[in-house]
Amino acid sequence: MNTLNGKKVLITSGGTLEKWDNVRGHTNLSKGAMGCFLGEAALAAGAEVIYLHGYFAKLPQNADEMRLVMFEGIEDLGAKIQSIVQNEFVDYLIMAAAGSDWIIDKVYDQSGNLLEEKGKMPSDEPPVIHFKKAPKILGQIKGWSPHTTLIGFKLEATEDVDYLISRAKLRMESSKAELMVANSSKSLYGMDEPHFIVAQDGEVLKVEGKEKTASKLVEILASR
């Protein structure tokens, strides 16, 4: 029987929280369900699980048997991944977290004055927020830890499966990931949407639902 005994698996889960001030910010609809399933499956397969979770993410049922690390924004997530993979041997990294595409650059009041206080924005008028492009963490991981087997996720707002898979293949190539899981944005609203596990050799495996996808992904890793 294939297992992950003696293997260390790092799983990222949930959405990033990009703060506007100390009480406000933006996030996304990811609540970490896929990450929970992955964590439970990896744990059941015998792995040591490091579980990096977003501020609002669900925790796995057996979270007390995992090493939990919380992150806030996408930059914080990247820094924590880098620290872990450069300071210890991580066999597999499953990047299931939903990172923000945009982070805060500068915030102004309605008169154009830069708001630099770190407390709470004034609530009597809406602020003017300038965003900047968020860093792409997935593409940096192999540079930090070339030996780690990398599994990414690619979500697209489309029902065109061929387009979805082509985008996943492009992301896999650019990040040098060994596997990429493609899914439609519909999966944010339910548990049973199909996922497509794409391998480097072009093979595509369709799996129905998040829980079965997590189990199949861990099964694939345990057989490597």
Q: What structural category arises from helix and sheet content?
A: alpha/beta
Q: How many helices?
A: 5
Strand content: 25-35%
The main sheet comes to:
8 strands, mixed
Order of helices and strands: EEEHEEHEEEHEHEEEH
Q: What overall form do the CA principal axes indicate? A: globular
Strand runs, count? 12
Mind telling me the C-alpha Rg?
Answer: 18 Å
Spatial gap, N to C terminus: 12 Å
Average of the residue pLDDT scores: 92
Strands in their spatial order, largest beta sheet: 5-4-1-6-9-10-11-12
Describe the secondary structure blueprint for this structure:
Blueprint: E1 8-13, E2 18-19, E3 25-26, H1 33-44, E4 48-53, E5 67-70, H2 74-87, E6 92-95, E7 102-108, E8 128-133, H3 141-144, E9 149-156, H4 161-175, E10 179-184, E11 194-199, E12 204-208, H5 210-222
Parallel strand pairs: 1-4, 1-6, 4-5, 6-9, 9-10
Antiparallel strand pairs: 2-3, 7-8, 10-11, 11-12
Helix pairs in contact: 1-5
